[in-house]
Amino acid sequence: MKKNIMPFVICTHNDDCDDLERLKIYQTLPDDSAAKDGYIRVIDESGEDYLYPENHFILFKFPDTVEQEILAVYDMKHHQQSHSQQA
């Protein structure tokens, strides 16, 4: 389990961003320079992080236990994707 639990966002708009799903929860990574320009770094389904307009999201702070459960699901999904790509 990761020690620094990152905040999560909920996608509210996916205008011009076909790779985002509305109402989906995404994990974010800190990126101060992107934030200065109105962007947020989001980890998508591929496990890669990309910059998106921050006005496409609502920052949401889950209770710690919920964040840990969500991160466990993300980690399991990423592990399964890595394993299937190696096969």
Short synopsis of the structure:
The chain contains 2 helices and 5 strands; from the N terminus they run ββαβββα. By secondary structure, it is of the alpha+beta class.
Q: What do these coordinates show?
A:
This protein has a single domain, classed as SH3 type barrels (Roll), CATH 2.30.30. The mean pLDDT is 82. It is globular. It has 2 helices and 5 strands. It is α+β, with helices and mostly antiparallel strands and 87 residues long. The protein is 32% helix and 26% strand. A 5-stranded antiparallel sheet has the order 4-3-2-1-5.
Name a few traits of the molecule.
SH3 type barrels; 2 helices; alpha+beta; single chain
Low-confidence stretches: none
Spatial arrangement of strands, main beta sheet: 4-3-2-1-5
What's the structural domain tally?
A: 1
Oligomeric state of the chains present here: single chain
Shape: globular
Number of helices: 2
Question: Which CATH class?
Answer: Mainly Beta
Task: Give the helices and strands as they follow along the chain.
Answer: EEHEEEH
